[in-house]
Design goal:
about 575 residues, alpha/beta, 6-stranded parallel beta sheet, 21 helices, about 35% helix
Length: about 575
Amino acid sequence: MSRPSRNAPCPCGSGLKYKHCCGRTSTASPRPRIPSTPDRRRKLVLAFPPYTTAASPPLGVCHLKAYVERTLPQWSVRVLDLNLEAHEHFLETLPSSTASLPPGVDRESVLRAAQMYRGAHPQDFHDKVRYLRLTQAWARTLPDALVDRSALEQCLRGGRVPAVIQRHADRILGERPDAVGISVLYTAQQRHALCLAREIHRRAGHIPVILGGTVFNEGIPTAWKGRTDISDFIVVGGGEHPLVGILSGRADLEPVAGVVRLRGHGPSETLPANYDVDLDEIGPPDFTDLPLERYYSPSPVLPVATSRGCYWRRCAFCSHFRSSGQTWQQRSVAGVVDELRAHRARGYRYFYFVDSVVSPARFSHLADGIVEAGLDIRYYAMARAEKPFNGALLAKAHRSGCLYVLWGFESGCQRVLDLMDKGTTVADTERILRLAAEAGLRNHVFTIFGFPTETVEEAQETLDFLERNRPWLSVVHRTRFALEEYSIVHRHPERFSITAMRPKPTARLFDFDCASGMTRAELEKVFVGARPFLRSFSGHPSVAGDFKFREHCLLSYAHEDDVRSAPRPPDRQESLPASDDYRSLP
């Protein structure tokens, strides 16, 4: 048989030109292709690795499952929440484990916290001090108990494969997949995902491995350019359309928007990710593979996406809006209501809107749709304290089932807010917090200390604001400013008097020098000194910490409202039977 010409189709059937496939002289290993098995339904396993909290199920992989099975009937999809399974394995082995726990934390407290989260001890969950004490023990123990960063780092460098990676590879390959996808939303999941992908390749190199999630929204790290042992494909941006392009085989034949091919001969050319998608066409998620009753909340709290991206996209400290290509896509209100109605029909009542931010108009339309549909639900969402939020709108949101709002407050100093380009004012925020509380909503506020050029006096303005508005506040979330790669501060440091930036060991974060404002030492003194005050909003003097899961806040507020609205029992004397035989009482 004569050798094909360089531009002829490769005889191996890949669909590529011979010069780009078997005709290449590179010694790199051939790239596995999606198998063609017309006689049976093929199987994709989508895995969600540790570590993140396990109080509610992951949303993205469940959207992918629903979309792939609806679009490609020849494929079935199995979702594995390895993060939840890692939590369960740790807790099952904890009683017999010899591993040391943080000082002051005992095994009984961690185990009782897990039982409480699963509804076993409602008296603990609804008692503020008991909940806080058990939750601080949990928060101090995890994630370090689940994630050995040093072992994972050594594994990536060619060292021993940790037992948890071997266990999770067994779990995935035990499903007999034709392809494997691993979703990585947070940097804390990245090492585990990479080690897992490489172990699957080592054991079953014929199975294509696909990595995606928000961690890869800026493409593949430069350090991966020479790596061919981690993944076959990287998905950049929203995963639904690129994943279908890979599973259908189209990505083997031509460039597909948002798909980078790694295996074979190094990274391929790729088309930019397409973020202009119809979210109604993407459709609702499918949670049927996940054991919703086993998540660490007394009642399931389901995530719902009513939009993707951010309509503001100007906050200087933020890089999250880039995960949707600096766009804002909305689902129809009817589509959101239909999804909520379907969940409610299955018995689920509690939800959180995962949107980066819900605009005042969007809040109004969603509330109208929920009320008109007569849905008895409870939920929370994130918003910016913008002028259109008035008493009537906030009262309508509460009537629709919204119990609390996480407000992007950030600072009580107007100069700092303007430098951040928040587009909000201190005066409007103060008014909205009061109106929201009067409408029955709880207010959580995000605060950032140490934004470039912020002075000690300006940080004090934030503390003064919080004290002044204490009656309207339920929780104060606080953090030191973190310089994120791709944020406006990172891209235009000169606007913020930043004179130098240095990469930190944590991926895509930077240390920096600033020509004015607090020094790092001054910031640390202010932040640490303010902790007792900041904890006082939602904590208790007897507990050194005030960490709460957001899902648990929703359930706690719902319980408080139900108790408050329940009819008072009749006076005990009036309820007694005529006789003195109290044994007849139920």
